[in-house]
Write a structure and sequence with these properties.
single chain; eight-stranded parallel beta barrel; three-stranded antiparallel β-sheet
């Protein structure tokens, strides 16, 4: 099995520094946000994205922060932009391009040069990679190339039924990735297609991450970009996606899970230190932690402040 192929390694649980148990939703969000500030709609320059990530690493919500997402072609640019100050390792999720063998060699060299920086600068370590594949054969070739010390995410299309692709990822010791939105309305999969992906991951015992269009906790109409004249579209909420996956993992049927993916009413949820309830269905804290440990890894967002701030605004991060 490839490193961490079956465990959501970024999740460690969230103890409370006050001695009061934190909310179960905080456990759901712990180490769950991969920072993708380089990508649309934020599309920050490298220096700005690095400053934001560095600030959030030392901020009060660092518990929710996961990896810095960067294309393999920009690794050297990242190294030049990172502050030369000591600190904990920066864990990177590296997007591979079309020449997998060449990209993996470049990553290996980068890790050799920057993965053990010590007293003068925080280490930079690309220990997670992401790549696209749309066939069982392509998935097999990809996972055969990725060194076993790396965690590999394979982005697959949700149409048609991705079950054969998910099974191939599981056989190869990888993890799945789903694109749940974008900067145009047609980039968002249907709720039924996203549900089928989530169900397929649960059936295959496969951990997954999601990317794009998940800045907000709940499904609703939002602007698709940060431009003042941006069109709007219906986006999935990361809470909808994560909770649907957690409920599926705990045995929920597809009909209820589909309703949960489409839920827009914050009042339909009750969050406490002991669990999360939605319209008569309940996850215990142990259920949440089990789902994070075995199924739900993270979601990529070009904003870190939006998802954490809006979740706090709903009151879901306090014990309840």
């Amino acid at each position: 099995m490839r490193k961490d192929g079956g465990d959501a390694s970024t999740f460690t649980g969230v103890p409370s520094s006050t001695g009061v148990p934190s909310s179960a939703f905080r456990a759901l969000l712990s180490g769950a946000i991969d920072y993708a500030g380089l990508f649309p709609p934020a599309a920050l320059g490298m220096a700005s994205a690095v400053r934001e990530y560095a600030a959030q690493r030392s901020g009060p919500d660092a518990w929710a922060l996961a990896r810095f997402v960067v294309p393999v072609s920009r690794l050297e640019e990242l190294a030049r932009a990172t502050p030369e100050t000591p600190g904990a390792v920066w864990h990177l999720s590296v997007l591979l391009g079309g020449d997998l063998a060449s990209d993996l060699r470049a990553l290996e060299e980068f890790n050799r040069r920057y993965g053990a920086r010590g007293a003068k600068a925080a280490p930079l370590l690309g220990d997670s990679v992401e790549a696209r594949a749309d066939s069982v054969e392509a998935i097999g070739r990809l996972l055969a190339l990725v060194p076993r010390e790396l965690t590999a995410y394979v982005e697959v299309p949700v149409e048609p039924d991705p079950a054969p692709l998910l099974a191939a990822i599981a056989r190869g010791g990888g993890r799945a990735k789903v694109r749940s939105g974008g900067v145009t309305a047609d980039a968002f999969p249907s709720p039924a297609a996203l549900l089928r992906f989530l169900r397929g991951c649960v059936n295959a015992g496969l951990a997954f991450k999601a990317t794009a269009g998940l800045h907000h906790p709940l499904r609703a109409e939002y602007r698709l970009t940060y431009a003042p004249d941006s069109p709007t579209g219906t986006m999935f909420g990361f809470a909808n996606v994560f909770l649907a996956a957690a409920f599926l993992h705990a045995g929920m049927g597809d009909e209820d899970a589909l309703r949960l993916l489409e839920e827009r009413d914050a009042g339909a949820f009750r969050v406490s230190a002991d669990g999360v309830e939605w319209r008569g269905h309940r996850l215990t804290r142990a259920d949440v932690e089990a789902a994070r440990g075995r199924a739900i890894v993270s979601f990529g967002s070009c904003s870190f402040a939006e998802p954490v701030g809006e979740t706090r605004g709903l009151g879901w991060l306090s014990p309840g």
